Every structure is written in structure tokens, then in C-alpha cells.
């Protein structure tokens, strides 16, 4: 039987003179701050992907021609993923040496500044080739920020959580993703009403980007009021920070990083059909098979974010009762069903059938995303946990979502059918399932530095546990 985890469970009181009530209050503050901060971060990330699917091809890459301009526009979405590992390496190093909260403040400001500047960027007609170059540079900054944000948010939530409620607490950074998608799609849909037609292309798309300034100010204020993770405070008090956490991570846990990355890749490739703007572009393209109106499609995607949020929360809650691994396996099966139903429903050609397709898809997505925060945190030792969580996530994002919209666009253009995309997404789902089956469940393992030896034992099936 495991020794109770005093650093990550009821242990908030260990550092808080007012006892367990103050600890519980701090935990609620952490959950709120995590939800707000990650929602703002992903709102910034998703309005870019949405704009890439709707207008960036026309505004920044028009000389390439209609079809290739769309591919180039989606490539800028993917390029940011290539820089997520850089953000993860930097944030992991800083987070394992200087704390989770410190990194979260930096990533929030960096993401917000890059997003606001996109909203002010002149188009190709105004400044020529400099416009797409500047757009790509700002997207790279977004990628660096996103690479560092998620790991810090996850550890702040999970390391503050009671041991038996880590899955539920870990949902807080996870639901920031569907909330960010809901907010981003809702703002884009609202602007399509307030600035319809040519006005949306001329200036309407810029407003959601500029709104980021207000949201970042709110997120920064909320995060400043949150205490550092109790696990890191204990590590810092003992002066046990690892000098080179990344070197130690890859020396001892390289295969674990790869498997954890493949788990996220299986979820991320499928999720980026909506969050990466592909479904929005496919269904609204006037030269495409559907030609639906932009506004209703954006509202349908926003509605699917609600079902995604609900299934993500349910999965986190369920993982505390049946284990992370079992919850994931259920999620992969549901996701596979959603993948095969997606395009038959979308291709029915109505907004309601499109909503049904993406909503069904999000049920499986939620079940393969909700347990991830707690699952990742329980895989890695305390002293290198930030690096392990962030880098696994960033690599998984490259393997999964980075170029999923581009791949989907190219597959349809090459084959003339969306079934090619379906089989691609089904393959990524099966890869995620296999990676899950190769890892043991470590639900409830102590997270504090007192249990580093237990945390160092490999969770890979068949590996030595000595």
C-alpha cells in the first residue's frame, strides 16, 4: 500500500499556517486560475487557427492561388507546433528550477502579445511578402508560449490536488481547451454577424485578436494571486532542484517520453479537425462540396465545444474512480466511432448534420483528453516532472495536430474523397490506443520528492521496476 502523498494531497496545509481550510481555499483559487489562464491561452491559439481556415489564405497568401493559399495558411498553423518543443524545453528547465507559477506568468504574456499583434498586422496587399513573414514569426511566438503553458498549468492543478481527486482537479487545464474553442468560435461567429461579408475580411476578423489584450490582463491578475505548487515549494526548500532536468529526463526516460507523446498525438490529430480550422474551411469553402455559410458553421463548432467540455470533465472525474488507463481505453473506442461518423454527417450538407458530426467526435476527444493532466503528472519523477510533461506534450502535438489540417487538405485534393482523411484519423487513434496499452496505470502514486525512488520505476509494460 502506498504511503500517503503529503505534498500533493491534503498537504496544502503543510505549508499553510491556517490549516486545511486555507488549503482548500487555495485549491479552489488554483482551479479557477488554471481554467481562466488556459482558456485565454487557447482562445488566442484557436482564433488564429479559425482565421487561417477562413481568411488568412486570401489576405496573406493570395498570390499562391486559391487551393495552394489554403494549404499555406494551414501550414502556418502547423509551423507553430514545430516550436512547441523549444517552448517546452525552456519552460521545463525554468519550471523545474524556478517554479511552475513563474513560467505561467511568462507564457501568458507572450501568447497575448503575439495574438494582439496579429490583429494589427497589415495584409499582403499592403506590405507584400513582409506580411506572411511577420505572420509566421508571430505564430512561432504563439507556439513557443503554448509549448510552455500546458505543463505548468497541469502541474499547478494536479500537484495542489488531493490524491483521490487528481483526475478531477487535472480537468481544469483540460477544459480550458474547449472553453478556448467555444470563446474563439463564438467571437468569430459574432463578428460574422456584426461585420458580414467583405467587412469580415476587411476588419471583422481582427477584433477577436485585439480582444486578447483584455483577456490577458484578466488572466495575469488571476494567476498572480495563486501560490506556487506545494511539490515545487518542498523541492525548493530542500534545495533539490535538478541542475539539468532535460538531460536527466532523456537519459532515464526517453522511451516513456515517446509513448506519452504518442498518446497525445492520437487525440491531437483528431481534435485539430475543428481546433485547427479544417472543418470550418472544408464546409464554408465556396469552391468546395458544401458551401455552407460561415456564421452557422462557426456556431456549430462553438456548440461542439460544449459537448467536448462536458465529456472532458466526465472523463477526469471517471478516471479517479476506474483509473486513467481504463478511461483512456474507453475514450479511444469512442473516438474511433466518432472518426467514422464525422464525414458522413458533415457531408450530409446541413449545419445541423455538421454539428452532429463534430459533437459526436468530441465525446471521444473528451475521454482521451480529460485524464491526460493527472496521467502525465503521475508518469514522471517530481524533480523532472515539468520537463517530462511539457516535452511529451509538445512532441505529441507535432506528431498529431501540427499538420493534421494540411494533411487532410492534401489527402482530399489527392484522392477526391474524405474517406482518406477518415482512415488517417483512425490510424492516429489506434496508435494512441497502442501507446496507452504499453503503459501501466499509476493513479494515486505519491507525487512529492519523498517518493522519488518509487516515481523513478518505469511505468512501461515489460520494463524492469527495480
From TrEMBL:
Transmembrane segments: 42-61, 67-90, 102-121, 133-158, 179-197, 203-222, 254-279, 299-319, 326-345, 351-370, 391-415, 421-439
Keyword Cell membrane part of the UniProt annotation: yes
UniProt-annotated location(s): Cell membrane
Entry-linked InterPro entries: MFS (IPR011701), MFS_dom (IPR020846), MFS_sugar_transport-like (IPR005828), MFS_trans_sf (IPR036259), Sugar_transporter_CS (IPR005829)
Major facilitator superfamily (MFS) profile domain sequence ranges: 30-444
Record carries keyword Phosphoprotein: no
Keywords: Cell membrane, Membrane, Transmembrane, Transmembrane helix, Transport
Main location: membrane
SUPFAM superfamilies: MFS general substrate transporter
Entry membrane topology: Multi-pass membrane protein
Recorded superkingdom: Bacteria
Listed name of the protein: MFS transporter
Protein source organism: Leifsonia williamsii
Lineage per the UniProt record: Bacteria, Bacillati, Actinomycetota, Actinomycetes, Micrococcales
